[in-house]
Amino acid sequence: MTCMWTDTLFAMSSKYRRDWAYLAIISIQLLGMIFLDLVAFYPKALYAGSSAPLHFLISIRRRYIRATSDPFFSASPAASPHSPWLQAFLYVELLVQLPLAVYLVWRLSSLWRRTTPFVELAAVVFCCLTFMGSVACCAELWSMSFLKLSAKKKSSLFYGTYLPFVIIPAIMGIDMYTRLALRFQRAEAVINKGKRQ
Fold it and tell me: For the chain, where are the alpha helices, taking DSSP H only?
């Protein structure tokens, strides 16, 4: 039992600590996608009726809207269509970010494995897409009329909800890109050393 506990601690310490933070961040984003962002893509029968199996998602959505007044969401996922730019980002989120998030959560949750080049590349792509979508939302919020959204709510959404998903993915993407670049530099150095011998 003691040996197993020691092995687990060793495995956890051999993994980058920041990878655990990245796992938490991406997990939060994944839950946000599943519970808020992508509900409109689910078959209506799954969430529309009060007896539908995923109707609780509508309750979560309503609570979120009540708390934040987020103009990018409506109480019913199918009630009002999004702006074309936001709809395009939602399709990117569904087709690219969601699979990447699932992959990254699966790989980063491993106790014994450090990141691989594939994980780092997936993280860079995921971070770039999250950054771009969040920048677009921030720009829209910044230019939004106070008639549509109060100054207090606007500030809260801008600084508390969307701006962190600009800054954090930028930092995470740069970190993963740096790791990937270092891997390629090391591999190139090994190849060059082999050629010289």
Answer: 2-14, 17-32, 44-47, 56-68, 84-92, 98-108, 117-143, 151-156, 164-196
